Amino acid sequence: MELGQKQYFDYSQRAQWLRGVVLGGLEGLVFSTLLMMNIDQMVTQDQTKSTKLILTGFLGLISGALRIAISELVSVYTQVDTLTFQAKRNLKLLGRHQHHQHDHHHDEKTWQMMPNPAQVAVTSSLAYLLVGTVPLLAFGFVDQQHTNLRACIAMISACLSMLLVGGFAAVLGNASIARSCARVLVGGLVAILIMWGKIKIYSWVSV
């Protein structure tokens, strides 16, 4: 029994920052993939713009990583405030009577499950920056003359990155790797299609 307790690990403690990794990674991939696909269209008209636009993409990733870090920090602190208030309220309602031992255990479990806003913000922003860099690098390694190929490479690298993010989250969260990879891949592709459709609609309206 003692050995089993030593081997036991509560994977739910990782849930919050793993969620941040998946969210940040997907956001970064959607941004950089769409940017590279738009660059592909612009570069066909002016080859000299390629390097400048890729550098602009890196700057966009940095600003996006900072943006998502602030968003995560604010939103997770809101969650922490709500959970803290409810935990204190539960203690007042339950009191300290015959279930003292159970209440103490429940209270300790609640505080252990409390998300760390700074940790979630850092992991989400790092995932946004690192994972979002992959399509930019893949795009830059292909010759400028092969513009259609560059866009395809950026898309393929984005899909592979989605699978890696899903697998990473599943392994560290002790979840189904296949289900996690499929969920991240499908979700990421749907997000890219939605944003791509929005760009197309804007281009049609502006014509």
UniProtKB/TrEMBL annotation:
Domain of life, per lineage: Eukaryota
Membrane topology label: Multi-pass membrane protein
Gene Ontology MF, one: manganese ion transmembrane transporter activity
Bilayer-spanning residue ranges: 20-39, 51-70, 120-142, 149-171, 177-196
Known catalytic reactions: Fe(2+)(in) = Fe(2+)(out)
Pfam families associated with the record: VIT1
GO cellular component entries: vacuolar membrane
InterPro entries given in the database record: Ccc1_fam
Keyword Iron recorded: yes
Signal peptide location: none
GO process annotations (BP): intracellular manganese ion homeostasis
Keywords from the UniProt entry: Ion transport, Iron, Iron transport, Membrane, Transmembrane, Transmembrane helix, Transport, Vacuole
Location within or outside the cell: Vacuole membrane
PANTHER family: FE(2+)/MN(2+) TRANSPORTER PCL1
Known role: Vacuolar Fe(2+) uptake transporter.
Family designation: Belongs to the CCC1 family.
Official protein name in the record: Vacuolar iron transporter
Gene source species: Dipteronia sinensis
